[in-house]
Specification:
alpha+beta; about 40% helix; globular
C-alpha cells in the first residue's frame, strides 16, 4: 500500500523536513506495533521522482534533504510500503 506524504507547490525545505520528521515518528510507532506481532513484517519508506523509485529505506530524514536538493524541480513523492496486509 502506498500513501503520498504531500504534493504541495512552493513548500520551504524546512517545512518539508518538519513534515518528514513527523511522518517518521508516526511510522516508528506503527513499526513498533507491527514488530510486537510475530508474523507481521516491517515497513520501508520509498522516495519516487516522477513515479520512479530513487530510494528505499528507513533513514528518511537523512536522505530526503539530499534528494530534494538533487531534484529541485521534479515531483517528489514520499510513501511507505509493507507486505500485503489489512490495515484497520
Amino acid at each position: 500500500m502506498i500513501e503520498n506524504l504531500a504534493t504541495v507547490d512552493n513548500l520551504q525545505v524546512s517545512d518539508m523536513i518538519s513534515r518528514v520528521n513527523q511522518l517518521e515518528e508516526r511510522m516508528k510507532l506503527i513499526n513498533m506495533r507491527l514488530q510486537l506481532q510475530f508474523t507481521i513484517p516491517r515497513f520501508e519508506f520509498v522516495i519516487e521522482i516522477d513515479d520512479k523509485p530513487v530510494w528505499t529505506g528507513l533513514d528518511l530524514p537523512i536522505q530526503f534533504p539530499e534528494i530534494f536538493q538533487k531534484y529541485p524541480d521534479e515531483e517528489i513523492t514520499i510513501s511507505w510500503r509493507s507486505s500485503p496486509m489489512v490495515w484497520i
